[in-house]
Design goal:
83 residues, mainly alpha, 2 helices, 66% helix, 0% strand, elongated
């Protein structure tokens, strides 16, 4: 059963904004995991020798780490912040 929001969703609501940011991060992690596992599957088992796969994974992992840092440490979800 999908989660239900008890009131009208509004990006100005700090609780909703926090939940939305975390769900977006979870989607980002899932997309990273699925894409990179496929990338490395073909690189390893098909002997594709894609030297760029290391760069794609490294850059994307850095972006993902930055996203996590923002969501869990930097973002201000207090009621008086403007988002």
């Amino acid at each position: 059963m999908p989660p239900r929001w008890p009131r009208e969703p509004d990006r100005n609501d700090p609780v909703y904004r926090r939940l939305d940011d975390r769900m977006t991060f979870a989607f980002h992690v899932a997309l990273f995991s699925a894409s990179n596992s496929g990338l490395w599957f073909f690189d390893i088992f098909q002997r594709a020798n894609w030297s760029w796969a290391v760069w794609v994974t490294s850059i994307w992992a850095s972006i993902l780490l930055g996203h996590a840092l923002y969501i869990f440490k930097i973002a201000d979800y207090s009621p008086n912040s403007n988002g």
